[in-house]
Amino acid sequence: MRAQTTLVLGIGNNLLTDEGAGIHVIELLARCHPDAAGVSFIDGGTLSFTLAEYLATHDRLIVVDAARIGAEPGGIDCFEGEAMDRYLSGNRESVHEVGLMDLLDICRLQDHYPQRRALIGIQPLSIDWGEAPSEPVARALPEAGRRVMALIERWDRE
Predict the structure, then answer these.
(1) Is residue 1 classed as helix, strand or coil in its secondary structure?
(2) Which keywords does UniProt give here (predicted)?
(3) What is the CATH number of the domain that holds 52?
């Protein structure tokens, strides 16, 4: 059996303070885990259908994004598998969720829908203009990165 590959996709706009949280986590992970076997850390920006190609070449998907999850700013939640699908279809609070659903629908139509998938959402404080995240979101970035890597490790064991 071949090893599973994982795409960790950070989405957001790093010119809008906390909206760039997913991008900041991806940059942190790429620096801290440059040789992670079978893992690709991709800056997905504000989403594009060209990202379907990356999903088609990976078995598993973890998306990291700023998302309104009903927590204090900097709070983190993980929606895995069907919980991710329900969150994305029933909660349109993040700027990118409609685009993310469209991207996943393309993958489903092309028979590349990842069976293992998760969304790690970070509650924003502000999405005003600014290149740095707010203090509570900046403090949450390392923990979000740890959760990504822990999820990959758990999936590898299962």
Answers:
(1) coil
(2) Aspartyl protease, Hydrolase, Protease
(3) 3.40.50.1450
Report the domain count for the chain: 1
Residue 93 CB neighbour total at 10 angstroms: 13
Q: Is residue 116 part of a domain?
A: yes
pLDDT tens digits for 43-76?
988 777 778 888 888 999 999 999 999 999 999 9
- The reported pTM is 0.91
DSSP secondary structure letters along 19-45: GGHHHHHHHHHHHH-TT-TTEEEEE-T
What percent of the residues of the chain are helix, what percent strand, and what percent coil, each to the nearest 5? 45, 20, 35
Q: Which two tokens stand for residue 109?
A: 């139509």
Q: Where are the alpha helices (DSSP H) in 75-120?
A: 82-90, 97-109
Q: Does a structural domain hold residue 124?
A: yes
Range of 109's domain? Answer: 6-157
Q: pLDDT, tens digit, for every residue of 103-124?
A: 788 878 888 788 899 999 999 9
Q: Which residue has the tokens 């957001």?
A: 12
